[in-house]
Amino acid sequence: MAKMKTSRSAAKRFIVTGTGRIRRRKAFRSHLLEKKSSRRTRRLGRIEDVAPADRRRVTRMLGR
Prior knowledge:
The protein is an alpha+beta fold. It has helices at residues 8-13, 38-44, 52-61; strands at residues 14-16, 22-25, 47-49. The longest helix is centred in the last third of the chain and has 10 residues, at 52-61. The two termini are 16 Å apart. The model has no long low-confidence stretch (mean pLDDT 96).
């Protein structure tokens, strides 16, 4: 059976840490920032863990 191919779009969006956690960027930070409060944009800048419900699907897309 052939090897699983890594989803290139997922590889650009998710980072796997040394301890095995999967991290992601938050959405809604790319444009139209003028109308968003500075508190909101600051919080959107954080890098977060992938939700437990999505973890299995994301690991599969990353070919792990």
